[in-house]
């Protein structure tokens, strides 16, 4: 006679609970304890909190997030906005954006917030007002001032939880975190002048505050050394036209320059490639400096001499200032000191 077959245990999941009161009865605690446990509050002891969390997973119970947000007047969402009024063809895949965005996303999500990303072409005067008044965000992080300084100042006068990556000027209303761009431009110029360069070109446009400050710093270095003012050669940050612009500039200036200060690492790396394709040695015939010190700067061949702005520390400072402002505290602008990083190109 064969042994009786034992039926397998039931795989039917436990019924879903409909509300916190019903779940509290299952857990054998009060609704308040459930709420505090699932919010990770330390007032609930660890054993009880872990038991409630396990039961919540088992029963598919998630507190009503919309109700919680209505109660707290918080969305737990931070907006990260990239305004591109000056450079409409630039993409979020730009290495600078991707690097800073990654550090910002890490800091925001580790603090328990969600992130909403927007790439904005400011076609209307009230583009920033529409973002901050949407009711969808607890705060806003702007990557770059673009050519929208006045719009940012206008909104910052009445909207506090906003922090911007960029430059800080005396009397500025909005909170900005960034490097001393003028000093950075001067450091780059001094490096080339120290190598013997006397006819320096700046590859970059000057419609944004950050880049215009870098060019001013280069002018400061040239004036202090008693050499001719640097040439300013408009070079856009849009990758699809950058190489063509650089080649055209080199055709135009010929032997009138003997050194290049690039407004960014990406421009510098592209300039190295154009010069190499023409058989012009970098740095012996044409020293070049970049600006940013992106991870690519050390990986390219030749390795890029550049001005470092600490994007990790900058992102952390932005997020810390934003959360302080969300809590109603003061958070002033932060201006970091740039650092000359010596490698192969200058």
UniProtKB/TrEMBL annotation:
Domain of life where this protein originates: Bacteria
Entry keyword set: DNA-binding, Transcription, Transcription regulation
Organism of derivation: Sphingomonas mollis
Transmembrane intervals: none
GO molecular function: DNA binding
Cross-referenced SUPFAM superfamilies: lambda repressor-like DNA-binding domains (SSF47413), Periplasmic binding protein-like I (SSF53822)
Protein name: LacI family DNA-binding transcriptional regulator
Organism lineage: Bacteria, Pseudomonadati, Pseudomonadota, Alphaproteobacteria, Sphingomonadales
PANTHER family referenced in this protein's UniProt entry, alphabetically: ALANINE RACEMASE, LACI-RELATED TRANSCRIPTIONAL REPRESSOR
Domain HTH lacI-type: from-to ranges: 18-72
């Amino acid at each position: 006679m064969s042994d009786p077959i034992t039926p397998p245990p039931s795989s039917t999941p436990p019924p879903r609970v409909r509300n916190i009161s019903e779940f509290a009865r299952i857990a054998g605690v009060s609704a308040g304890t459930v709420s505090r446990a699932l919010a990770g509050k330390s007032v609930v002891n660890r054993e009880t909190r872990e038991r409630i969390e396990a039961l919540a997973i088992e029963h598919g119970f998630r507190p009503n997030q919309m109700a919680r947000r209505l109660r707290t007047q918080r969305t737990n969402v931070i907006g990260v906005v990239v305004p591109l009024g000056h450079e409409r063809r630039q993409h979020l895949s730009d290495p600078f954006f991707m690097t800073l965005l990654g550090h910002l996303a890490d800091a925001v999500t580790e603090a328990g917030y969600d992130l909403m990303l927007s790439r904005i072409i400011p076609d209307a005067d009230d583009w920033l007002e529409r973002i901050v008044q949407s009711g969808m965000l607890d705060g806003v992080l702007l990557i770059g001032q673009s050519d929208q300084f006045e719009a940012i100042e206008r909104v910052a006068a009445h909207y506090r939880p906003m922090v911007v990556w960029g430059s800080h000027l005396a009397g500025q209303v909005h909170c900005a975190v960034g490097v001393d761009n003028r000093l950075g431009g001067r450091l780059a110029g001094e490096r080339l002048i120290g190598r013997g360069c006397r006819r320096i070109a700046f590859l970059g446009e000057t419609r944004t505050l950050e880049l215009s400050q870098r060019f001013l710093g280069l002018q400061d270095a040239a004036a202090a050394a008693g050499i001719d003012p640097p040439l300013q050669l408009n070079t856009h940050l849009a990758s699809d036209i950058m190489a063509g612009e650089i080649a055209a500039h080199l055709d135009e200036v010929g032997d009138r320059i003997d050194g290049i200060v690039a407004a960014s690492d990406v421009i510098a790396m592209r300039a190295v490639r154009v010069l190499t394709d023409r058989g012009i040695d970098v740095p012996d015939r044409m020293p070049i400096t970049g600006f940013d010190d992106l991870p690519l700067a050390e990986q390219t061949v030749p390795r890029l001499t550049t001005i470092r702005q600490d994007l990790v520390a900058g992102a952390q400072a932005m997020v810390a200032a934003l959360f302080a402002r969300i809590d109603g505290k003061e958070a002033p602008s932060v201006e970091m000191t740039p650092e000359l990083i010596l490698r192969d190109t200058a």
